[in-house]
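Hi all, long-time lurker, first post. I run a small reading group and we've been trying to get comfortable going from sequence to structure in the token notation. Rather than ask abstract questions, I figured I'd post a concrete chain and ask someone more experienced to write out its structure so we can walk through it together at our next meeting. Sequence below, copied exactly:
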Amino acid sequence: MTALVPFRNVAPVGENRDRMLAGEWFVPDDPVLAEESRRRAELCTAYNSAAPEEFPCILRELLGSVGDGARIRPPFHCDFGYHISIGPRTFVNFNAVFLDSGPITIGADVQIGPNVQLLTPTHAMEADRRRAGWEKAVPITIGDNVWLGGGVIVCPGVNIGADTVVGAGSVVVRDLPPGVLAVGNPARVVRTLDTRSRQ
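-- Answer (accepted) --
Happy to help. Here is the structure in token form:
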């Protein structure tokens, strides 16, 4: 475990951002992170009230990368935006929450239902450290052609393989292989899918 360092009124400005980007324990109470959060809030507010023809321009400014033909229905909420990469032709339905203290990588042709949460932050298990506000972020990766049903929650550090389907309301706490159907809390693989292309 990375050593915890002093933070409130002690850590140099920006140190917690550096620690966050390195995947280390950090405290989000940092002026640099606060400014980046303010930028994100302004862009999300603009996106969630924009006309559809304005969506692509705002998304390009908000997100790390967004592929051609990707669509996100507002309202959409995230932590910073720049840690999010969305592949071409991916569709994200209403009320998505992507907490991107760490990288969130979404492949091509992904279908994401309403109220889906992708959550990279995790907190210390030790009560005193948690009370002090320490957290870290573990990346999430969603493979090509995945379908996440409505209300799915994907927890920190999870990788979901290409062509996998996750049933509505499931909570994904560990990696899922390619080409399976997984359901439940915690999500469990219930069968293998036929992923052959059909014309």
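A couple of things your group might point at:
The CA atoms of residues 87 and 108 lie 4 Å apart.
The mean pLDDT is 92.
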